[in-house]
Design brief:
Mean pLDDT: 94
Low-confidence stretches: none
Strand content: 25-35%
Distance between the termini: 11 Å
CATH topology of the largest domain: Quinone Oxidoreductase, Chain A, domain 1
Helix content: 10-25%
CATH architecture of the largest domain: Alpha-Beta Complex
CATH class of the largest domain: Alpha Beta
Largest sheet: 7 strands, mixed
Number of domains: 2
Shape: globular
Order of helices and strands: EEEHEEEHEEEHHEHEHEEHEHEHEHE
Number of strands: 17
């Protein structure tokens, strides 16, 4: 089968081995995949990754132990835990010590004709959710996961989202879509205009002096400077949710966290069922974020396009 391989420069391998289906797993034909900033970080050496990246996808089940899955259009939780430990039984398995992670850790990803994923990770996509919307389920789940770390957040509370890129745009749309007051802070007037068109308030970084410190600040800048700005904008005893992964070490003065008793929370993957439900209800429309699409044969070009400064979501058609 065809697959985009990271081993040095991204390259298309037309003879990559088909995924081996283990008991309890499904083989899924990929329909559409999305390029994520994490994919770009992997291409730059994050985690020493080698193999097939890609974890945002929608596909159709080809093979499965459970015949009820065959032919179903699906998305999937990218965390494939062991299924037997306390973390897997009592929670979502996102922190199972034996987990593999689709396109990120020890499991070939979605920039390929096919992939293998445990059946328990599958989530069916309703017929009225298009492929282009469904491919946003994984990043939307991650965006909505912010709410799990801020269950106290009320509609009257201001949530500040730092970063006007793909992830920041989706987080701001997700929080606003489920009824919260949101302000985005970014560096690009063009991107801020995009979020304003979705009914979200937006400010340039240079205007943050006008912004009162907030109880919830989400760092989705993808830059080493994001956390420092987040600390300046967070009210005492507030919460910073860190959604950024950056390849390389980070040097920063953390004393404001102690002085202001600020809670710093790392945030990764979320509930895929909730994301599909939000997409089904049309509470969030991710389609304005799509900037370009490429066929799988040109997936290396898709990665390069997504890595351009200022680019938005790039999709890969399989």
């Amino acid at each position: 089968m065809r697959a985009l391989v990271l081993d040095g420069a991204p390259r298309l391998d037309r003879a990559f081995p088909d995924p081996e289906r283990k008991p309890g797993e499904a083989i899924v034909d990929v329909l559409v995949a999305g390029v994520c900033d994490t994919d770009l970080q992997l291409a730059r050496g994050y985690m020493g990754f080698r193999g097939v990246p890609g974890h945002e996808f929608v596909g159709r089940v080809r093979e499965s132990d459970d015949p009820r899955w065959i032919g179903k259009r699906v998305v999937a939780d990218i965390n494939a835990g062991c299924g037997a430990c306390d973390e897997c039984r009592e929670r979502a398995g996102h922190h199972c010590g034996a987990r593999t992670v689709l396109g990120i850790l020890a499991r070939s990803g979605a920039f390929a004709d096919r992939l293998s994923i445990p059946e328990r990770c599958l989530v069916e996509v309703p017929d009225d959710v298009s492929d282009d919307r469904a491919v946003f389920a994984e990043p939307l789940a991650a965006a909505l996961h912010v709410l799990d770390d801020a269950s106290w957040l009320e509609a009257s509370d201001r949530a500040v989202v730092l970063g006007d890129g793909k992830l920041g745009q989706l987080i701001a749309r997700a929080l606003a879509g489920v009824g919260h007051r949101v302000v985005m802070v970014g560096r690009h007037e063009r991107k801020l205009a995009m979020i304003r068109s979705a009914g979200v308030e937006a400010l340039l970084e240079g205007q943050t002096g006008l912004l009162p410190r907030s109880r919830l600040v989400v760092d989705a800048t993808g830059s080493a400077s994001g956390l420092a700005l987040a600390m300046k904008l967070t009210a005492p005893r507030g919460t910073i949710v860190l959604k950024t992964t950056v390849a390389g070490a980070l040097e920063i003065d953390l004393s404001p966290l102690v002085i202001d008793e600020i809670r710093l929370v790392g945030s990764r993957c979320g509930d895929m069922h909730r994301a599909v439900d939000v997409l089904t209800r049309r509470q969030v429309d991710p389609l304005p974020l799509v900037e370009a699409r490429y066929p799988l044969d040109e997936a290396a070009d898709a990665i390069a396009h997504a890595g351009r400064k200022g680019s938005m979501k790039v999709l890969v058609d399989v």
